[in-house]
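Following up on my earlier thread - several people asked me to post the actual chain instead of describing it. Fair enough. Here it is, all 386 residues.
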Amino acid sequence: MSKPHPERVLFLIDSLGMGGAERMLVNYLQHLDTNRYQPRVCVFWVRDGNPIAAEIEQLGIPVDLIPVSGIRDCKCVASLVGYLRRHQIGLVHTQLETVTVHGGIAAKILGIPAIHTLHTFAYPNATAREILRSKVTWFALRNFHDQVIAVSAAVGEYAIAEGRVPREKITVLYNGIDTGYFRRGSDIDRAAVRKAFGIPLNAALVVTVAVLRREKGIQYLIEAWPKILESVPKAYYLIVGAGPYEDQLKSLAATYQLTDRVLFAGARSDIPAILGSSDLFVLPTLDDVLPTVLAEAMASGLPIIASRVGGVPEMVEHGRNGLLIQPGDPAQLAAACVRLLRAPDEARRLGQGGLAVAEARFNVRKQVQELENTYRALLERQRSSC
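Reply from S.P.:
Thanks for posting it. Predicted structure:
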């Protein structure tokens, strides 16, 4: 009996810059069962050189470009339909925004299943253009897609309430990570990592990994740092990442005369080593659907302090694997940091709790199995209706 051919799946995404959705796509492609599914990736434009494309191509997965000027560029639908036919695509999986509309329409024309992953709360700006864009996107999700994957229960409820997406179309599937990649091990040279940043080995090290935007709330932890130093004089704060708010954060640290204790590492590729050399992870975000970096910190065995916003409470259970605080409150941040930095037994217990949560909820291998099950159900339903 001949072996069945794998189903051809197209992952359609706006671009392949260094965003969270793009990195998550790589995680899933690394673990997808290629005996059952043959993946291909297509983008609509190039952002910052599309660096993630090289990582995907190294997996042996082709990456194509169909140039699109924006969500109003409907001419590309014909090009996309031809592309899907040419590559005999059996299922379309869209990510991010613009591809939602065009990918959904093309799949509907050809009668093939379409699935979309909803990564963000799509709050429209108070402009007619953005409101219209939001309405068009919700319309596409309701009418052109067979399934919507919400990366948190919170964003799923948002899609139901705000976008009127039918509840039966929503599947909650948390972002997954390779937990073994982040697990703290004996191969991490804690002393060398700290030396690279000028941090003493016996210092208390708090770390945040994030794109440096105002919405990440890092400014509030910088404001809290003088209070933290009163109780923990040997504390250092390492900010890992780059972004549009970096200069403002550096200026704030200088204003508080903290340039020797609040350090900026820039964008890094050695995140597991940095996490494994730290004592506490803090994400003072003002709004987040499901910050993958929290799962990475958990898998590293770090206790967590994070804001009680968006999907964060689905990741951090207060008292089990971290502490939840109100967003934008430097006093609460200071108190929570001091509490865990001065109570190593509690911090260790919370870190162990994080390991268990990461493995149970955010292991990419388990998440990919769930994704494949969703694909199979949609494809079987499509075949039965033919």
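The longest strand covers residues 7-13. That should answer part of your original question.
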